[in-house]
Amino acid sequence: MKKVIVAAAGLMLAGAMTSTAFADAGVSFSGDARARVKYFNEYTSSSSEDLFFESRARLAFVGESKGGAYVKARFKLANGKWDGTNQTKGTHSRNISVDYAYLGVPLGAVTVEAGLYDDRGITPFTIFADDVDTLQFIYQADSTKLTAFMDMVHENTLNAGVGENVTAWGLVLDQGFSCGANLTAGIRYQYNPNSGGPEGLIAGLDVTGQVGGMTLSGGLGYKDEDFTATTDDGFGLWARLDAPVGAATLSVIAGGTFDGYTPDWGEFDAFYVTTDYTMIADGYMIGEAGDAFWGVLRGTYQASEKLELAAQIAYAKEDDGRDEDIFEIGARASYKILDGASLSAMVGYADYDEADRSPLGMALSLDVKF
Questions:
Q1: Where are the alpha helices (DSSP H) in the chain?
Q2: Count of H-run helices and E-run strands, the chain
Q3: Fewer CB atoms inside 10 A, N or C side of the chain?
Q4: What 3-state class would DSSP assign to 175?
Q5: What is the CATH code of the structural domain delimited by 228-370?
Q6: pLDDT (tens digit per residue) in 160-187
Q7: pLDDT tops 60 at residue 18
Q8: For residues 83-112, b (16+ Cβ closer than 10 Å) or e, as one string?
């Protein structure tokens, strides 16, 4: 018994010392976790059907020195399908991975950041959340934020006869205005001195403003032919109206993409099924084969402080490639169980006119944040 008491006292003392050390160093932790069940019908073929579970946990920390320099990192744990722990445990690559890990040093109005960054973006309509090894300089004053960056796309050993480094250079401006409007504009040029690899410009511009209680937004995007699935330079444009009606919001989203231009569909938030990043995404990329026109009508209703509901219908027309007509209908719901915990559901159906399948997806997700 004495040994147990001594050991417990030692652990309590060590915990107190560790907490004090973290507080002195300015270390804070946060994270989130989720568990999901999904049902996919006709996602890969007209006869495919799948019911599966998946889960993950993420742990992030921020360490700040007394002078204001900082380190930020986030780890992803056990991210994958439930398969007898084959994906979530052991030596599988999904068992543990790093989302980002970088340092920052503020020097007056300019902050220097370097390391693994998970949010290289211009706008959601161009590129928005690419992982990059980067060196970037961030100028921020009042409502202006200007980021200049150099991303190392591929590193080749010097004097080894294997080519030169592939880098991407760019600028992103976020500018707010006193009227409540906001502008985001950016360019990214990938320099590739080696033969056969992609090289060229990606650029985007988004604007958002308020008119009579409604939110109006729109944007343009451009990608060099090396970053499209065609042999032409691609471009696109979009517009969105969000109109509040009591506790509800009616949203209309419309746009077009040309010559193989594809937005970052997952971040752009237009489609539920016909996209590459939602709970029920089937990975179909609208517009990658040529030209496309699309529109979305969505209604969102705040039923209570805890419950939000949404439903939408969407249509897309592809030309010069797959010549596909796509009709999609979907709905989602989110319920706040308690502070830091929520339950959300999503269902969607897409009808492809030419493809021999009509995917139906359903998903339920339990999420916790701390």
A1: 2-25, 265-268
A2: 2, 18
A3: N
A4: strand
A5: 2.40.160.10
A6: 455 678 899 999 999 999 989 999 999 9
A7: no
A8: eeeebbeeeeebbeeebbebebeeeeeebe
